[in-house]
UniProtKB/TrEMBL annotation:
This is Shikimate dehydrogenase (NADP(+)). The gene is aroE. The active site is at K65. It catalyses: shikimate + NADP(+) = 3-dehydroshikimate + NADPH + H(+). Pfam families: SDH_C, Shikimate_DH, Shikimate_dh_N. Residues 233-263 form the SDH C-terminal domain. The keyword DNA-binding does not apply. Involved in the biosynthesis of the chorismate, which leads to the biosynthesis of aromatic amino acids. Catalyzes the reversible NADPH linked reduction of 3-dehydroshikimate (DHSA) to yield shikimate (SA). Gene3D superfamilies: Leucine Dehydrogenase, chain A, domain 1, NAD(P)-binding Rossmann-like Domain. Residues 6-87 form the Shikimate dehydrogenase substrate binding N-terminal domain. SUPFAM superfamilies: Aminoacid dehydrogenase-like, N-terminal domain (SSF53223), NAD(P)-binding Rossmann-fold domains (SSF51735). The lineage of its organism: Archaea, Methanobacteriati, Methanobacteriota, Stenosarchaea group, Halobacteria.
Length: 269
C-alpha cells in the first residue's frame, strides 16, 4: 500500500483526503491519503520522517509552503513562486512542486478560456496570488497584480515576465482585461464582502475566485450578472489535486470522480 498525505497546521477541515481517496477508489490504486499536523518547528523532522517511513507523496499547506522550499529539490516554477505545495518522495532527493499554478491554468482551460494573449488581473499577492501570476504569465497572458499592500504587488510583478503591479486603486485595469483572479481571502466565510467593486466587471471577463467557502461568492454572483464566465474556487482546488495525483502516480487522474467527492464534501461545509 502507498501512503500519501497532507502536512499543515491546521488540517482538520481539509477536503484533500476525500478527493484523493475517491481517485484511489476509481483507479483501483492501493493507497491511502492521511493528514499530518506537526508543530511549526517540526516541519523539517516531519519531511525527513515521512521520507524515511516510505511515504510516497505529501501535499503541503499553511503554514509550511515556504519552509518546505528549503527542504526539497524544488522545480523551477516552485522556486520562482517561492512555495511548494506538493512533495514527491519518488526521487533520491524529495522533489517539490507548486500545483496551485496548474490549478489556476487548468481551471481556465477547463472552461474554454484561452490564456494566450489574454490581459489578466490578479487581485492578491500572497501565496495564491504568486502562483496565479506566474502561471498566467507562463501561459502567455499579460499580468497586472493589484494588492492591498501595493509594495507586495510591485515586488511580485518585478519577478513575473511582463507584469505590472500596484495597489487596489489600480483595479480599474479590470475594465480592459479578459481574465480576473481573486487570490485574496476577501469573501471567505463572509458572503457580503467582495475584493472588486461591481462597476469594474463586464461580460468579456472570465473570473476565477480562489475562495471556495462559499462556492458562490459575491464576486462571482456580480460577475455572472454581467454575463462573465465564472469559475469557483473548487475548480482550482480540484485541479491542483489532479495535478498532484498525476505527478505522483504518472497516471491520468479520474477528474470527474475527484470532482464529485470534493463537491459532495463542500456541500457539507
Ligand atoms: P495569503 O498568502 O495569506 O495572502 C492573502 C492575500 O489576501 C494577500 O494578498 C492580502 O493582502 C489579501 N487580503 C487579505 N485580507 C484582505 C482585505 N481585507 N482586503 C484586501 N486584501 C486582503 O493567503 P493565500 O494562501 O494566498 O490564500 C488566499 C485565498 O486563496 C484564501 O481564501 C485561500 O483559501 C484561497 N486559496 C484557494 C486555493 C484553491 O485551490 N482554491 C489555493 C490556495 C489558496 P496583503 O498583502 O495586503 O495582506
Amino acid at each position: 500500500m502507498q501512503v500519501y498525505g497532507l502536512v499543515g497546521n491546521p488540517v482538520g477541515h481539509s477536503l484533500s483526503p476525500p478527493m484523493h481517496e475517491a481517485a484511489y477508489g476509481e483507479t483501483g490504486l492501493d493507497a491511502r491519503y492521511v493528514t499530518f499536523e506537526p508543530a511549526r518547528d517540526d516541519i523539517a523532522a516531519a519531511v525527513d520522517g515521512a521520507d524515511a517511513l516510505g511515504v510516497s507523496g505529501l501535499n503541503v499547506t499553511i503554514p509550511f509552503k515556504q519552509d518546505v522550499l528549503e527542504l526539497v529539490d524544488p522545480d523551477p516554477l516552485a522556486e520562482r513562486i517561492g512555495a511548494v505545495n506538493t512533495i514527491d518522495f519518488g526521487a533520491e532527493t524529495p522533489a517539490g512542486y507548486n500545483t496551485d499554478a496548474a490549478g489556476v491554468t487548468r481551471s481556465f482551460d477547463r472552461h474554454g478560456v484561452d490564456l494566450g494573449g489574454a490581459a489578466a488581473v490578479v487581485v492578491g499577492a500572497g501565496g495564491a496570488g504568486r502562483a496565479a501570476a506566474f502561471a498566467l504569465a507562463d501561459a502567455g497572458a499579460s499580468v497586472h497584480v493589484a494588492n492591498r499592500t501595493a509594495e507586495s504587488a510591485v515586488e511580485l510583478a518585478a519577478a513575473v515576465p511582463g507584469a505590472t503591479g500596484g495597489g487596489l486603486d489600480t483595479l480599474d485595469r479590470i475594465r480592459e482585461a479578459n481574465v480576473l483572479v481573486n487570490a485574496t481571502s476577501v469573501g471567505m466565510e463572509s458572503p457580503e464582502e467582495t475584493p472588486v467593486s461591481a462597476e469594474f466587471l463586464h461580460g468579456g471577463l472570465a473570473v476565477l475566485d480562489a475562495v471556495y467557502t462559499p462556492l458562490e461568492t459575491r464576486l462571482l454572483r456580480e460577475a455572472a450578472a454581467t454575463g462573465a464566465t465564472t469559475i469557483d474556487g473548487a475548480w482550482m482546488l480540484l485541479l491542483q489535486g489532479v495535478e498532484a495525483f498525476e505527478l505522483w502516480t504518472g497516471r491520468d487522474a479520474p477528474v470527474e470522480a475527484m470532482n464529485a467527492a470534493l463537491r459532495s464534501h463542500l456541500g457539507e461545509h
